[in-house]
Target: DUF305 domain-containing protein
Amino acid sequence: MPSFGFLDNRRARLFGAALVAVLLLVAAYAAGYATPHITAPGDDSPEAGFARDMTYHHSQAVRMSFLEYDRGDATSTTGATLHRMAYDMATSQQYQSGVMETWLADWGLEALSTHGTMSWVPGGKSMLQSDGRMPGLASDDEMKRLETANGKDADILFCQLMIRHHLGGLHMIRAILDLTDRAEVVEMAENMQRSQQGEVDQLRLLLKDLGGDPV
Model:
């Protein structure tokens, strides 16, 4: 469970309650897919690589959402919408990460691997950013800027970073959909694709309302 040291007690309780709900959803999901499969994905399979890389990718989105929830301007109409979106993103991506971690456990695989980032995609190295980051991941400097931004500035930066983050995630999602026919992976990836594309469209509108540079 992530640290909530940067949140006040009220918000920590709110996120704590949300994460309990997430854990219950993960347990329910796992119960539906826990039936042993004749052939589970191997350690170097696209399914395992996607689960590992996307879980890491989601962890940054969750962190950015917590920061926006804490530091954005929730008093304006646009800011209040972002406030709600940040909460929804944090809880939904925590849930998805829990499901993917459950897959790996059910498949008898470690959560971490010695395989390289994006190695599960043929030619996946070409998808990496110039410094080796996964598609869409914010840099350390960008995260530091978000950690210190406040109000409208935080709202604008969050929109810009999350749009890029989601666009990178969508590249990864399309890649796994081309590589797998495993039912639970396809279902999860398609759900991610719908939600993230919808959030990109909404964030672009909100960014325009805020007067920020488009992404």
